[in-house]
TrEMBL record:
It comes from the Eukaryota. Residues 126-147 have a biased composition (Acidic residues). InterPro entries: KIB1-4_b-propeller (IPR005174). Residues 41-323 form the KIB1-4 beta-propeller domain. This is KIB1-4 beta-propeller domain-containing protein. It holds the Pfam family Beta-prop_KIB1-4. Residues 126-152 are annotated as: Disordered. The lineage of its organism: Eukaryota, Viridiplantae, Streptophyta, Embryophyta, Tracheophyta.
Length: 355
């Protein structure tokens, strides 16, 4: 494994993202600090980072994005809203119940007619204090059964800016098993999930008029990832390629404690044959994925100094670049000032505007 040293230039802090820097690939955004109050925007092609302290990103988690629109969640609660990185516009969302947010997908920017916002959540249990005070031994025979009930995953969805309340559909339990929510993505403005237990590829189409979600089975076939049967740790991603194909990226880990990215398999989905086809080449395309957010994106390498046939993978503070043809991996620490304490990392496309 080759260790690369980059020349990095640190720019002064600002409260706005560096969207005036022209580039044709996504930015690596790393948020760290006790309350996520510090952000670093790293440009892969320039090998430079830009320090920022953007008030709107303080105490927030980035849950999803579409173009420059981000779905932000408070680190203290399930409160979420949409925020535009460029214009600073904000769209308030209907309140969610107190819950654990399992997944969040934004199909398109809010001004797009096909925009849908979908949450998969587990509602938190609530306890009635008065019932606890009045409880007696005769209730104990029922307590075990009641405590064993776990709230099933529930869908909440809306079109941002148009609804005062979320539509709710309790179909999560019929799709997922053992609490496994699958691998999610947006493909051609539609919502897809590959379930981990039944290994199905499903398309979810929310209808805001009826308040229901149509779930369509696309395929029962799972990618053949049995290349390394002795590898115990792996992670999967599904994403839309810049050439409008649906990709499945499977990453194997190896080394001490299985903590080092070792090899990748890439599959394209054939909608005519309804099957995943392994590909040994992605051509003039670069794939960008993040272990923290379990999301990814791609871009063309034409006209850039990005490496074609490559997968840019970020885990913690480290950036790995894997070549699909040579199976070689390079490693770098692009932003050494970022805290080691599990920074949140995202690949975000930002449009170019005049400074």
């Amino acid at each position: 494994m080759e260790l690369e040293e980059f020349n990095k230039e640190k720019y002064g802090e600002s409260d706005r993202p560096p969207f005036y820097i022209q580039q044709q690939h996504p930015w690596l955004v790393m948020c760290d600090g006790d309350v996520r109050h510090k952000q670093t925007f790293f440009s892969v092609s320039q090998n430079q980072y830009y320090l920022r302290r953007i008030p709107e990103l303080k105490e927030k988690l980035i849950r999803a994005h579409a173009d420059e629109w981000l779905v932000l969640q408070s680190i203290y609660s399930s409160e979420c809203y949409l925020w535009n990185l460029i214009s600073n516009d904000k769209i308030q969302l209907p309140p969610l119940p107190e819950c654990t947010i399992l997944e969040c997908l934004l199909s398109a920017p809010p001004n797009d007619p096909e925009c849908q916002l979908l949450f998969l959540i587990e509602e938190n249990e609530t306890t009635n204090d008065s019932d606890d005070e009045n409880s007696n031994d005769s209730d104990d025979e029922y307590s075990d059964d009641e405590n064993s009930n776990v709230n099933p995953p529930t869908f909440y969805f809306c079109k941002p800016g148009y609804h005062e309340e979320f539509h709710k559909q309790e179909d999560g339990h019929s799709i997922f098993e053992n609490g496994s929510s699958g691998i999610w993505t947006v493909f051609k403005k539609k919502l897809y999930v590959s379930t981990l237990q039944t290994r199905r590829l499903l398309c979810l189409e929310p209808d805001n008029d009826s308040g229901t979600i149509t779930i369509t089975l696309i395929s029962n076939e799972y990618p053949d990832v049995r290349k390394y049967l002795d590898t115990t740790r792996f992670v999967n991603f599904i994403l839309q390629s810049c050439d409008d194909t649906l990709l499945y990226v499977h990453l194997f880990f190896n080394g001490k404690s299985h903590g080092i990215p070792y090899d990748f398999l890439v599959f394209r989905f054939d909608f005519a044959r309804k099957s995943w086809i392994e590909t040994e080449s992605i051509g003039e395309v670069a794939i960008f994925i993040s272990y923290y957010s379990s999301t990814g994106t791609t871009c063309s390498t034409k006209g850039t100094n990005l490496k074609k046939e490559s997968i840019y993978f970020i885990e913690g503070r480290y950036l790995y670049v894997y070549n699909l043809i040579t199976h070689s991996i390079s490693l770098s620490l692009p932003c050494p000032h970022v805290s080691k304490k599990n920074p949140s990392t995202h690949w975000l496309p930002l449009p170019c505007q005049k400074k």
